[in-house]
Amino acid sequence: MKRSTFRILFYVKGNNPKKNGKVAIMGRITIDGEIVQFSTKLETNSEQWDNKGGRAKGSSAAAANLNRLLESIRAKATTQYNHLMELDGYVLPDKIKNALLGIEEKGKTIMFYFDKFNAQYKSEVGTMVTRTTYLRYELAKSRLVEFLKQEHHGIDDIPFKEINTVFLQDFYLFLRNTHRSGNNNAMKTMQHVRAVFNYIKNTGENFADPFANFKMSFEKKERDYLEQEELSVLQNKQFGSERLERVRDIFLFSCYTGLSFCDMCDLSKENIKQGIDKNLWIMTKRHKTDIPFKVRLLDIPIAIMEKYEGTQEGGKLLPVISNQKMNSYLHEIADICCIDKKITFHVARHTFATLCLTMGMPIESISKMLGHTKIKTTQIYAHLIDKKLSDDMNLFAEKLNETKIQLVAS
Predict the structure, then answer these.
(1) Would you call 71 helix, strand, or coil by DSSP?
(2) For labeling, which of 116, 178, 310, 396 is most exposed (least CB within 10 Å)?
(3) Number of domains in the chain
(4) Containing domain of residue 46, as a range?
């Protein structure tokens, strides 16, 4: 493709001095013979202007400062020209003029809307959404700024209408290659950007949705959980380390209550109440969704709770450490117990759900205990049980086939 010709020069309106005797400095942008003119909003004395060079004469501080401002305008115009050429393959001089004069409203840029969206989201933290999710939107915004600076000539914003499907695909690859994000993490970031475009649409803006032809695809991952035999090994294991014993106890507590890591951190004496059945129940709200939930305390979690009673400050029940350290120690525990699974703290929650399902508990009851907002979320665990049933049947079929039973015709 032939590169278009681009020039910007400065001149003065020498025949039209102002009341102070100075003349206005004008700019002229030429692209492929098309010309637009604009005011730089700068001025000088006509005798101090070099018409041929398009700059102030002399080496005085005033002349040097004026030339520096003119070069800044030239650099901004050149950057905008290069950016638009890469984006569209052509540039109209009016576009550069508008960018220089700020005619393209800030309200038409992606960062303007990202800031508005995130501000609205932040206002809902603690009532409708969590701070963790809000921070993920802030991270998506910073990743987008980083992408623009690295891949689009150093700019940190762009009119949202200039974002197209190719731009999104390049951004996705940037996340995968530069930040080594897995597909699902990268897709979550893309979802956050899409949410901002949905917000823009709701403001009444009319534009071609760049996500219309962008395929959002998540890789299905098997959710690990512990089976009853593995739980028994974990429960009966004697650890020589008090550190590992504490982590094992907290993990088991979650396996028999379904509490998430954040909910475990928040758990206090106030959350333990006697139910109408005279048994002890955990009665609180999920940290993530603020949804109320109730879980009866079985013998094992009660024993763990009594083991650490009075050892924690602020009414907390259990010695919960950071999630990162917890997961690191759980890997160590899995090795010691010869459990060939990647155990993280969240596996405990999966274990609780699958245990309840295998014991025949209705999925609606499990959903309430887990504090899910949708039954569809809980149904993921039902798929695990279906898979286990299928695996068990395959094993049964293999053993049956080994007997080589022959059907005798009557």
Answers:
(1) helix
(2) 310
(3) 3
(4) 6-101
**Contact status, residue 125 vs residue 134, Cβ threshold 8 Å:** yes
Confidence band for 250, pLDDT divided at 50, 70 and 90: very high
Give the integer Cα–Cα distance in Å for 355 and 110.
46
Threshold 0.70, pTM exceeds? no
Does 14 score more than 80 pLDDT?
no
Output the six-digit token pair for 381.
């665990």
- The set of long-range contacts for 174-178, using a CB threshold of 8 Å and a minimum separation of 24, is 174/143, 174/147, 174/150, 175/143, 178/146, 178/150
169-204 pLDDT per residue, tens:
999 999 999 999 999 999 999 999 999 999 999 988
Q: Are 293 and 284 in contact (CB under 8 A)?
A: yes
Inside any domain, residue 391: no
Dmax (CA) for the chain in angstroms is 121
Q: Are 89 and 3 in contact (CB under 8 A)?
A: no
Question: In what helix (H) or strand (E) does residue 292 lie, and over which residues does it extend?
Answer: strand 292-296
